[in-house]
Each structure stands twice: as structure tokens, then as C-alpha cells.
Design goal:
Shape: elongated
CATH class of the largest domain: Alpha Beta
CATH topology of the largest domain: Rossmann fold
Structural class: alpha/beta
Oligomer: single chain
Strand order of the largest sheet: 10-11-14-17-20-23-26-29-32-34-35
Strand content: 25-35%
Number of helices: 13
Distance between the termini: 43 Å
Length: about 550
């Protein structure tokens, strides 16, 4: 019972760690009009308010609630009870971003306010009542309307543009001159080039607008991202307390429309081929992405950062027929293929849900100098495939969770270092590692300070078996639970030659770590320093995996 309880607690803790769990530090509430609001995505609608994409610029510790809505002025936002709803939610330390003006100028009595009187008073109300709740108000003026007269961008907001700054000075509130920022940007682009950031749509191109559209007020995805970035950069200066929570991503993937694209593959396709000495950082927002993801060799230095629980999921398997009516095979069954060098993944789950149907790979990784941090690899047989068949690749797995049944960490000509990982077996008489290390290669799989666990009732699991004659797998300072078979290792194809594999152990603990009944050909490692991470992964270019990981974590 104690063991079961311990296992449950361990699994729960691991799930929290691997899901990128962070307690929310505060909430940012957005109140405003359509230029800030979330949008419906029907018919491929590309319209976005800049507040819709704002979450991609902040860490998970910041919760962003966008209450901005199309067509509202300060007056209608108050009269409809929308402000009261936000006010009731504000807690001490939360922020309220306030941006109105487009609709306050409208002549209808339900929305119209006057600069110098009602518009000013409504902004004061938002500021003062936010402060009464312990919140922090930030005033914005309206973004520019794309109004070119004789090739000159001309203002349409009049005094509504100036009031927020005046109230900010009066009440000592941070102010973002969003109008000036966007005016300078649109003006520098000019009339024709600036259209690509607004809702200018050619006829018969999108189901949402079959007749086309020429909208100079509202932004598309690209425009919203530019305008949001302007806001964030200005906020870093005007509200420095927010700066530690800001993040830089080149692309954002989000299923709710708050990113650049909806799928991870679409983001990968946007990465420039053979980008020189530049990392492309991609934020993947929470969700299950049912994709067969391919990161080609031309997409180098790609980083996938998961926000919340991010799962890349597939269900192919070796005997499944492809579109040509042929069996997919082991390699063809993978959910994800990673070929680009210097790949980095954080808080991403790679899974194959095909079940107990034979080989079904979650991730095939042919990337040199690849790093996986707090990722999960879920499957049954042949879950994780460090590949490198045509070359020796080096990969670093730190604090990851890997599960499976038979040969669920297997590889061909790959050197992989597993640091503080949890390795979970899901079936009796299974095998963990199955390396096919080429002759003359110094290292295969190294498991350091890992915890070997199992599902309830699972027993007699082997540490591994050499897939090819020179296969190498070693375990150092690992904790092995009692599901590990006393013999430790099994042979495979090389039954008549047990001198070439390197299957070794050193300094392991736990009920499954005893060496008393280990097979006679298993290696008792004499010098564990031979397996330190710099030696194992350094290679001819002296790659420092831990330093690279630390640099990624600082961003």
C-alpha cells in the first residue's frame, strides 16, 4: 500500500512538473473595443484584435482575460454591466488595460461620449475603481485607423486620442501612446504595404468574406501581432514590474486563434530554411495536436516551448497500411519526426495511442545536439527512437518521462544521455533499452540518476538488450524499483557473441539494483567518470549540453 501511495504521489508530482505548471502570479484584464477584442474564427476569418494575441507575449504565470468587445464605447461598456463584471473579478495586484475611443466618437446616444466631460469621467471611473480593488490600471489610446489622404496618413480620432494621456497624467497612471506607435508604423509602410496588416481581403479567397473586404480599422493576424508587440515593448518601459513576465517568441501556435497559426506543422513550415546562427522560438499553447509532425533537416535550431499541457498525438503503427496499401513499418509509424539539428523541446508530450499493436513510435529523432527538457514520451512498444542511422547524433533528455513496454527506448547509431528522467514500464517481461550502437562508437545510451518505475503489478522487466552486436546502454546512480528482473539484461540477435555489447551499471539503488544475480556478461563499470555528460556528448565540436540547456532556460 505504501508503495502504491508513493507511486501515485510521484506520478502526480511528475505530471505537474511536465505540464509546465506554474501558479498564476496575477491576471491582466483587457477592456476596450473591437481593435482589442477576441474574434470568431468561422470561415477562416483572419481578423484579430491585438488583445487576442497578447497571451503569446507573456509567461504562463500571467492569466489574461480579454473582455474587450466589438462596437463598445466607455459608455456602453459600463451601461451593459460589462465593467461591473470585470470589477467584481479584480484582485490585489491584477492589471486592467483600458483602451477606448473608436466608438465613443460615434453619434448614437447609446455609445457617444464627449471629450472633456463624459469620456474623461468614464476613464476616471475605470482607473479609480480598479485602484479601490487593489488593481493597477494602465491607459491606452486608440490604435490608428488606416486613413490615407493624398498618400499621407491622416488622423481620424481627434481629441479622443489625447484624453487618455491627459487622464493618465492627472491620476498618475501608466500610459501607452498606442496611437502614436501605430501611426508611425503604418505611415512608414505607406498606403499599399500597410494593407497587408489590416482586413483587406481579395474576393473569393476566404469563406468568411466571399465578396472580399477593405477594412482600414481592424487588424488581421499579422497586424495584431505587430500591434501587440508594440504594446508589450512600451509596457516594459512604462510598467517595469511586468517585464520579468514577458517572453519573446518568433511564432505562436494556438488552437483558439490567439497565435500565428493553428497547427505546429504550419509553424514549422514558416521557419526559414537553413537560418544562419539563429534560433526560431515557437510557443505552443495548451491543447492536443493530432498531427504527424515533420521537422525537416532544413529547419535548424528550432525550439518548441509548451504552455500548459501540450500533446502531439498520433496512432499509427508498423502493420497499419499507408495510403499505398503497404505496411508503414516501425519508422513509418512515428507521430513526430525531428531531423533539424540543434532542436530544443520543453514541456511537450509526444504520444502514440495505437496501443498494444506492435511497434508504434511516438518520436523518431535524427537531430544532432537535440535537447528535451521536461518532455513526455508515451506509448507501448518502441516509444522513443533516437535514430541517427546515417550519422551519430547526440541527444540530451533532462527530467523527462518515458513509458512503454518492449524496447521502448531504442535507437540506431545515436548517443543519448538521460539525466534525472523517470522511465516507466507498463508490461511484465518487457525491455527498457534496445541500442544498436555501431562498432567504433564510444557511447550509446547513458541513464544517469534516473528513476525506474512501473505500473502496478508489473514485474520481471529487463534493463535492456543489445539490438545489434555492439549495442551500449549503461545505468549510473539510478533508483531501480523491484520490477527489474534480477538478471538485469537479456541477449537478442547476438546469442553467440556476448563480448561486444556494453551493458553496464554503477552505483544504482533500490530493490531492483542488486548485482548478485546479474547475467555474467553484464559490465560492472569501474570508472563512472568515463560517463560524465561532457565526455559522452561533447564530440568533436565539444558540445556543452548542460550549458546549452541553461541558456535556453534563461530566455
Amino acid at each position: 500500500m505504501k508503495k502504491i501511495l508513493f507511486t501515485l504521489v510521484s506520478v502526480f508530482t511528475m505530471v505537474l512538473l511536465l505540464s509546465g505548471y506554474n501558479e498564476r502570479a496575477f491576471t491582466i484584464y483587457l477592456i476596450g473595443d473591437s481593435t482589442m477584442a477576441n474574434k470568431k474564427l468561422d470561415g477562416g476569418n483572419p481578423e484579430r484584435g491585438w488583445g487576442f494575441v497578447l497571451p503569446g507575449f507573456f509567461s504562463e504565470q500571467v492569466n489574461i482575460e480579454n473582455h474587450a468587445i466589438n462596437g463598445r464605447s466607455t459608455k456602453s461598456f459600463i451601461d451593459e454591466g460589462r465593467w461591473e463584471k470585470v470589477l467584481n473579478r479584480i484582485k490585489k495586484g491584477d492589471y486592467v488595460f483600458i483602451q477606448f475611443g473608436h466608438n465613443d466618437a460615434k453619434p448614437d446616444e447609446k455609445r457617444h461620449t464627449e471629450p472633456g466631460s463624459t469620456f474623461d469621467n468614464n476613464l476616471r471611473k475605470f482607473v479609480n475603481e480598479t485602484r479601490q480593488k487593489g488593481g493597477i490600471p494602465v491607459l491606452f489610446n486608440s490604435i490608428v485607423r488606416r486613413n490615407f489622404v493624398n498618400d499621407t496618413l491622416t488622423d481620424t480620432h481627434g481629441e479622443y486620442r489625447n484624453v487618455p494621456q491627459r487622464i493618465a497624467q492627472e491620476l498618475d497612471v501608466p500610459f501607452i501612446d498606442h496611437n502614436a506607435l501605430t501611426h508611425n508604423w503604418v505611415s512608414s509602410l505607406g498606403d499599399e504595404a500597410s494593407r497587408q496588416y489590416f482586413m483587406w481581403i481579395e474576393p473569393n479567397t476566404l469563406a468568411c468574406c466571399p465578396d472580399g473586404k477593405k477594412d482600414n480599422t481592424h487588424l488581421n493576424v499579422q497586424g495584431a501581432k505587430v500591434v501587440a508587440r508594440m504594446a508589450v515593448e512600451a509596457l516594459a518601459q512604462e510598467v517595469p514590474a511586468l517585464a520579468p513576465y514577458m517572453r519573446r517568441y518568433d511564432l505562436v501556435v494556438a488552437q483558439d486563434g490567439s497565435g500565428d497559426v493553428f497547427t505546429i506543422q504550419a509553424a514549422i513550415n514558416l521557419v526559414p530554411d537553413y537560418r544562419k546562427n539563429q534560433e526560431t522560438r515557437i510557443l505552443v499553447r495548451q491543447g492536443t495536436y493530432k498531427e504527424k509532425l515533420i521537422i525537416p533537416a532544413s529547419k535548424q535550431s528550432v525550439s518548441l516551448i509548451g504552455e500548459g499541457e501540450v500533446v502531439i498525438s498520433g496512432n499509427d503503427y508498423a502493420k497499419k497500411l499507408n495510403i499505398m496499401g503497404e505496411e508503414m513499418g516501425t519508422s513509418g509509424s512515428s507521430t513526430c519526426y525531428i531531423y533539424g539539428n540543434d532542436f530544443y523541446a520543453e514541456n511537450i508530450t509526444f504520444e502514440n495511442t495505437a496501443g498494444m499493436v506492435g511497434q508504434a513510435v511516438a518520436a523518431l529523432i535524427d537531430s544532432d545536439r537535440a535537447i528535451f527538457y521536461r518532455c513526455r514520451f508515451l506509448g507501448h512498444q518502441d516509444t522513443l527512437y533516437p535514430y541517427g542511422k546515417e550519422r551519430n547524433v547526440r541527444q540530451y533528455y533532462k527530467e523527462c518521462y518515458i513509458e512503454g513496454t518492449v524496447d521502448f527506448i531504442f535507437g540506431w547509431s545515436a548517443t543519448a544521455y538521460f539525466d534525472n528522467c523517470t522511465i516507466n514500464s507498463k508490461r511484465d517481461k518487457g525491455y527498457i533499452a534496445a541500442p544498436a550502437t555501431p562498432q567504433g562508437t564510444d557511447y550509446g545510451f547513458v541513464f544517469s540518476h534516473c528513476h525506474l518505475t512501473a505500473d502496478a503489478g508489473v514485474e520481471n522487466v529487463y534493463l535492456g538488450r543489445p539490438w545489434r552486436p555492439y549495442g551500449q546502454a549503461v545505468y549510473l546512480y539510478c533508483k531501480m524499483d523491484n520490477h527489474i528482473h534480477p538478471e538485469g539484461w537479456r541477449v537478442w540477435h547476438n546469442k553467440d557473441n556476448l563480448t561486444t555489447p556494453t551493458m553496464g551499471e554503477y552505483g544504482n539503488t533500490g530493490d531492483g539494483a542488486s548485482m548478485l544475480q546479474r547475467v555474467s556478461w553484464a559490465d560492472k563499470i569501474a570508472d563512472p567518470s568515463h560517463y560524465n555528460i561532457d565526455t559522452v556528448l561533447g564530440g568533436s565540436d565539444n558540445w556543452n549540453a548542460t550549458q546549452t540547456w541553461a541558456e535556453k532556460r534563461k530566455q
